[in-house]
Amino acid sequence: MIKILKKINDKPYRKFYSFYDNALEHDQRSIEAIAISSLNKDEMIVDCRFVNIKYIHENEWTFFSNYNSPKAEDFESHNQISAVFYWQKVNTQVRIKAKISKSKEEFSDIHFKNRSLKKNALALSSDQSKPINKFSKVKQNYEKAFKDKDSLIERPRFWGGFTFIPFSFEFWQGNTNRINRRELFTLNSKDEWEELILQP
Fold it and tell me: Which domains does the chain have, with CATH numbers?
């Protein structure tokens, strides 16, 4: 689940809360999973991966990762992302475009302290996305980190949150005969949401 810490009353957010609650009521699994696409401008390579949104606070959406990972390099290279939720139980898709940056250190510190020690041990022991000669070494590194429980409370500097602020939402609802409903909200230069209905 996503922790919605503070809601705002903007229309696309109200629509998101409603769709999210509906998916939750229908027991949507992995409801917090979102596919995030990024661009590395230095290499001109586009990449995509699923992450778990942990918090929404007003217009700020936050997930956590290794700051030395490929996606972190992408965000440093180009601070715009696109992202998609798909909730199969209610045949609903939410597409988002946003600007992304590192979260505040204090926020990441609090989140890390409140995580399970097992999760923190993995964060400490894994050089995320870097090659390793055999999988058994992953387990060895994890077990070694987990034994040193005193080190599992303080967040390492190479790990923390990423926060994105959306400037576009598209809400897609699947219907029979592919007569799908699509509503687009775009933030204009006056910080006002413009609304359009898109053809399927």
Answer: 3-116+157-198 (2.30.110.10)
The tokens describing 92, both together, are 């609903």
pLDDT digits (tens, 9 = 90+) for 96-110: 999 999 999 999 999
- Partners of 45 in beta bridges: 40
CA dist 131 → 71, 126, 137 (Å):
16, 11, 11
Per-residue pLDDT at 147 exceeds 90 = no
> Burial code of 125-147, b = ≥16 C-beta within 10 A, e = fewer?
bbebeeeeeeeeeeeebbeebbe
CB 23 within 8 A of CB 89: yes
Q: Name the residue type at position 86.
A: Y
SS3 124: helix
